[in-house]
């Protein structure tokens, strides 16, 4: 239960701030948790903690930093619980990745716009394959089944398309910084 | 330490395996080792995670069946895209592709958008991808609210900001500030116009009859109706779903028309959209629609159509009853008739200079001081006055002074009037044009009279448009039944921009084109009695006799209309 009296203004403010930062929070957790099946749980836990502690948040201060700090603790907590299976990033990697994310310009909108442009530079059939692959519930195998392609060939093609998109986004963002 | 080609190859292999959920324990340890020791590998890793996440976001936002047949039929699986990559990177990529290790895929791989466990752990929680940028957030917040607050069945995503004659099927009254929620059932807008703004800054105007519902804060499903949306940076990716198409914003102003039987149109006025057509379970076609273009979609195909520049309501203002469809002219005659410039005002109505009120045209010589009277009943008229030149003639609420104002007897005879059908039983002509007909709107100013329009009142209600110039025909009515002597003036912020004084001849008419700058605030039209040599009090009333000044088709021309 929340530890503070609920005001509808708080609720609306929280929603507004969370909405504005949700992608960054998600990206942060997903980068630190390679086991993506657990990302949902951590995000939900983090959001719960954020809301329960929202009365401690200083209005007008940096919500993103505050939210990421909470998400970070949830990630550490996750690693603490899951440590026995030894399938986790080392402390050094986590800290290093975390530092990198926090010091990166969080202009997710710009990145998304660039990605859209890069997707449009793909050939139609490549773009279609990416669309198929990222349909909710889709897998490389299901795409292979739909398109009649061999799974391994498709896997290699996806590797190539992802690498191409990655390079296009990096290059475009880098060019933008030079202007 | 800079990453080597060999390491880059290996990293891409590992990231591909991570993406496909086939990363082994040993490979994961190897990935961790690379991230620990090679700073560049961390950058690539983070970018790769971002890429996969954003691809999920995009596709979740689009949520359509792609052009499957197109993908199947393409003969070349390995065609190189046409965008350029630096040579050294291309070289590395080429090497990477040549030396890439063969990966054995498991029998069933995991959805990239869904969790990708290294070791499966039993979960009771739904594996539905949370990162559908907004939809999932709605679910998440719903969950939070449900658990921690009070049960709520909906999630608010937009706010009503204005409406005109709007009636809808919801039991809630339509009023500014009302929050619209994500709903399972569509809302019917039976009639009128509704203006809303989403929490992501998408402004939209919905014209009834329409049926719609928000599916999340970034998407509206419209079964039928007309929608015009202006999407700000935060709302990028905003989507309109119709029965046979999806329109995805790429930073734009666009209109969508959805017909009840399924056909739809997109008209793009600024920026660009993606228009994805094809009904459910059918192959889809994606069209980039840039500004200035329009496309229509039926059940089988999308085709280019003419842009309908005035086909969508682009702005409303309930206080002034303004409904703007992007017309490029504002009729000042309509404003004088109690309107807003877009055919709302009434002919044979005018503004009384003594009261500033709208009234029917009545005639009688009346004495007035030269006080500037505010017109509170019409936001577009700043004020009205009877110039007499005895003291400084104020012509605007900002205190602009008409320095050139000649001395007059301070008498007026009729209100500033919109298109009188008759005046003293006579139609009002300038040359061959009958300005008593509704199709030839006019402002009739019988000396002595001045009226000032507030240019900013128009600007603030017509987003994006610029007032370029004032155009009109100006002269004295040919049908004036006797001799006259009159002055005609046009002022901008108190400065004379046009004048013709001592007009005594019929048939004189000037075609005015007065440029208006963004910093100009007020436009004033004035008629004053001409200079009279006779100061006999008996002549005072006749000093304004037949001073029938007419401004034919007085229009503010707009440019830069979205």
Question: Which secondary structure elements does this structure contain, and how are they paired or packed?
Answer:
The complex is a heterodimer of chains A (179) and B (562).
Chain A: H1 8-32, H2 39-52, H3 63-82, H4 91-103, H5 108-121, H6 124-133, H7 140-147, H8 151-178
Helix pairs in contact in A: 1-2, 1-3, 2-3, 5-8
Chain B: H1 5-19, H2 25-37, H3 39-62, H4 68-73, H5 87-99, H6 135-148, E1 155-168, E2 179-182, E3 187-198, E4 202-216, E5 219-231, E6 239-241, E7 245-249, E8 253-258, E9 264-270, E10 272-277, E11 285-290, E12 294-297, E13 302-305, E14 315-317, E15 322-324, E16 329-331, H7 332-336, E17 349-351, E18 358-360, E19 366-367, E20 373-374, E21 381-385, E22 411-412, E23 416-418, E24 429-430, E25 433-434, E26 442-446, E27 449-454, H8 455-459, E28 466-476, E29 486-492, E30 495-503, E31 509-515, E32 522-529, H9 537-540, E33 548-559
Parallel strand pairs in B: 5-6
Antiparallel strand pairs in B: 1-2, 1-3, 3-4, 4-5, 5-8, 6-7, 7-10, 8-9, 9-12, 10-11, 12-13, 14-15, 16-33, 17-18, 17-23, 19-22, 20-21, 21-27, 23-26, 24-25, 26-33, 27-32, 28-31, 28-33, 29-30, 29-32
């Amino acid at each position: 239960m929340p530890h503070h009296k609920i005001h509808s203004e708080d609720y609306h403010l929280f929603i507004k701030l969370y909405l504005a930062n949700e992608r960054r929070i998600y990206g942060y957790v997903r980068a630190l948790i390679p086991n993506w099946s657990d990302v949902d749980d951590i995000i939900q836990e983090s959001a719960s903690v954020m809301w329960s502690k929202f009365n401690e948040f200083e209005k007008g201060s940096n919500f993103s930093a505050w939210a990421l700090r909470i998400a970070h603790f949830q990630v550490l907590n996750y690693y603490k619980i899951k440590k026995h299976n030894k399938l986790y990033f080392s402390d050094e990697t986590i800290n290093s990745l975390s530092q990198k994310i926090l010091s990166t310009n969080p202009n997710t909108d710009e990145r998304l716009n660039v990605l859209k442009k890069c997707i449009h530079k793909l050939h139609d059939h490549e773009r279609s394959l990416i669309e198929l692959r990222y349909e909710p519930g889709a897998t490389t195998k299901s795409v292979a089944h739909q398109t009649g392609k061999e799974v391994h060939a498709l896997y290699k093609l996806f590797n190539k398309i992802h690498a191409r998109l990655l390079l296009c986004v990096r290059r475009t963002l880098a060019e933008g910084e030079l202007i | 330490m800079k990453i080597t080609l060999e390491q880059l190859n290996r990293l891409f292999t590992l990231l591909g395996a991570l993406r496909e959920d086939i990363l082994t324990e040993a490979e994961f340890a190897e990935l961790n080792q690379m991230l620990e020791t090679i700073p560049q590998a961390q950058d690539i890793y983070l970018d790769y995670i971002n890429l996969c996440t954003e691809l999920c976001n995009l596709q979740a936002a689009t949520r359509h069946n792609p052009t499957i047949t197109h993908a199947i039929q393409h003969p070349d699986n390995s065609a190189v895209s046409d965008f350029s990559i630096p040579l050294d990177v291309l070289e590395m990529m080429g090497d990477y592709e040549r030396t890439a290790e063969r990966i054995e895929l498991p029998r069933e791989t995991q959805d990239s958008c869904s969790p990708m466990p290294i070791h499966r752990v039993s979960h009771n929680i739904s594996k539905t991808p949370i990162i559908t940028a907004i939809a999932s957030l709605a679910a998440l917040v719903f969950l939070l609210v449900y658990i921690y607050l009070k049960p709520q069945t909906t999630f608010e995503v937009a706010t009503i900001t204005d409406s005109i004659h709007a009636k809808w099927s919801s039991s809630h009254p339509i009023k500014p500030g009302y929050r619209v929620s994500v709903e399972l059932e569509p809302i019917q807008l039976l009639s009128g116009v509704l203006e809303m703004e989403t929490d992501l800054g998408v402004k939209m105007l919905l014209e009834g009859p329409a049926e719609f519902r928000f599916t999340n804060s970034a998407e509206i499903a419209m079964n039928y109706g007309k929608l015009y949306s202006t999407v700000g940076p935060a709302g990028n990716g905003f989507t309109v779903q119709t029965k046979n198409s999806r329109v995805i914003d790429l930073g734009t102003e666009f209109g969508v028309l959805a017909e009840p039987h399924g056909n739809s149109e997109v008209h793009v006025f600024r920026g660009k959209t993606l228009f994805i057509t094809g009904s459910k379970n059918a192959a889809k076609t994606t069209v980039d629609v840039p500004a200035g273009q329009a496309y229509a979609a039926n059940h089988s195909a999308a085709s280019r159509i003419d842009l309908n520049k005035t086909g969508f309501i682009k702005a409303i203002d309930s206080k002034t009853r303004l409904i703007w469809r992007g017309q490029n002219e504002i009729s000042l005659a309509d404003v004088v008739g109690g309107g807003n410039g877009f055919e709302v005002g009434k002919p044979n109505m005018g503004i009384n200079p003594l009261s500033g009120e709208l009234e029917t045209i009545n005639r009688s010589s009346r004495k007035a001081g030269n006080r500037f009277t505010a017109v509170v009943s019409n936001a577009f008229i700043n004020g009205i006055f009877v110039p007499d030149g005895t003291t400084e003639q104020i012509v605007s609420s900002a205190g602009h002074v008409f320095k050139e104002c000649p001395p007059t007897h301070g008498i007026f005879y009729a209100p500033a009037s919109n298109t009188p059908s008759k005046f003293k039983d006579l139609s009002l002509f300038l040359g061959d044009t009958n300005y008593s007909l509704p199709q030839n709107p006019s402002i009739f100013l019988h000396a002595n009279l001045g009226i000032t329009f507030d240019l900013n009142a128009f600007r603030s209600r017509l987003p994006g448009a610029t007032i370029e110039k004032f155009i009109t025909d100006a002269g004295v009515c040919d049908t004036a039944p006797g001799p006259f002597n009159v002055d005609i003036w046009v002022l901008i912020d108190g400065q004379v921009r046009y004048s013709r004084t001592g007009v005594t001849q019929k048939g004189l008419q000037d075609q005015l084109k007065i440029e208006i700058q963004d910093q100009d605030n007020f436009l004033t039209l004035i008629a004053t009695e001409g200079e009279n040599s006779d100061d006999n009090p008996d002549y005072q009333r006749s000093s304004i006799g037949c001073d029938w000044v007419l401004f034919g088709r007085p229009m503010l021309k707009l440019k830069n209309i979205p």
